[in-house]
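User: I want to check something. If I give you two sequences, will you return the structure for each one separately, not as a complex?

Assistant: Yes, each is folded on its own. Here is the first sequence with its structure:
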Amino acid sequence: AAIIGETISEKRVLVYYEGEKIFDMDSEFLTGGPVYARDVKLVKRDQKDIQTQAPKDTNNILIKMLSDPNIASKDWVILQYDHTVRGSTSLTPLYGDVVNFSPQDSAIIKPVEELNKGLVISTAVNPFLLEYDPYWGAASAIDEIYRNIVAVGGRPHSLADCLNFGNPEKPERFGDFYQAVMGLNFATKDLKISFSSGNVSLYNESMIGSCPPTPTIVGIGIIDDVEKKVSSNFKKEGNTIYLIGKTEREFGGSLYYRIIGLSGGIAPKMDPQNLINYSNTLLSSMEKGIVTSCHDLSEGGLAVAIAEMAFGSDYGAVIELPLLKNMRADEFIFSESNTRWVVEVKDEKEFESLFNEKNVPFMKIGKVSGKKLEIRQNESKIIDVPIEKLREKWKNAIWEHMG
């Protein structure tokens, strides 16, 4: 290595050759570059709540969800790679008991052998939601990456992005880009976590059209002790299941509407302050050892999340829904509202005391029990399917598709 220069107080870049100045330029001009003046067209998206008919076969809808490539097990890909390099992986992408596995919201590695501190790593984006509403779709990606990290016991630290969009020379495409970036800004500024890196990939179009707005988010968190990690798979029969957060009639861009052939609806919103409060309270309950398993709610909503928690164990779940205002049971279990988790708890009193103290909404919904997923409301069965059948559909879907 050789010394080739030094920093100076002037905002200029100077280059000398054999004592003669051969380059002298304003540093802001040199690094600034031209600024494009693109035409922007912000597409107005009128979102209205849709009143739908109750489905005749909710079991079949859940099976279709678990077989959807966006939800089905990715073990076809994951098992082709070594995700335990150097033996430092504490929580793998698929994790469970000796025989079965559940999808995890994040992976955890222990980079320094002498320390128990771990790095929590996760990704998030929902192109279907972003195509429907770029602003709230981007904000939702931040909400999901944050809760993914929290779900395993990590505290969110920093972000990176990969902004994939269509041709910015088309005003509508540039409008999508603008709205998505503004959504990212809204969601992150109060969370006080920054984008440490990122890249932008534009002109992603072909003869059949543009890619959907896809700001893929990578998140990093810190967990002080990897031995205190929380995985998503159920741990013990008889433990209580709680839902954390508020469930709304938000189906814009949802998997539920795609399966039943509807478009429209209200896009999920998010509130950064609620995300902070809910997350801190959940992390506190994890640190106290109250929560034994946790899974965030995203595509497919509550029903999919509980099924996935059962896949990595030898247990099922019995869920008892209360009578709901302005929402049917099928809508409640398939809503994709943000800032929600399902948790398995061994001490109801301690859990409820903590969450009541912090004014975090929660609902006791059931127990880890049996070998089926049963979701009931007022003695009516909404879902009643053996876990093994659901697991088989979820695990085999991509293998069958790939041949």
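And separately, the second sequence with its own structure:
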Amino acid sequence: MKIFIGYLSLLATEQHLIDLFTAYGRVEAAYIPRNAAGAARGFGYVIMADDTLAEAAIHQLNKSQFMGQYLTVSEAISSIGYTIHG
């Protein structure tokens, strides 16, 4: 399952996301979009292998504090309204 993480600290790295989500299950990938200058854009994505464990991670981490920010964590939804699976 692909998970969206919003309000992510601009100092967070992909490894930070992997470390955070690995507590809930196997992380297949983590990605933080960056602008042309290479600065983080304040959100990221994690792909977890197991949907049930991903849902548990979403439930536990949504509205939790991480690196001084309160995260929004949800299943990633495409811009045309359907769920993206990783």
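Because they were folded independently, the notes below concern the second chain alone. The two ends are 6 Å apart (CA to CA). Residues 26 and 49 are 6 Å apart (CA to CA).
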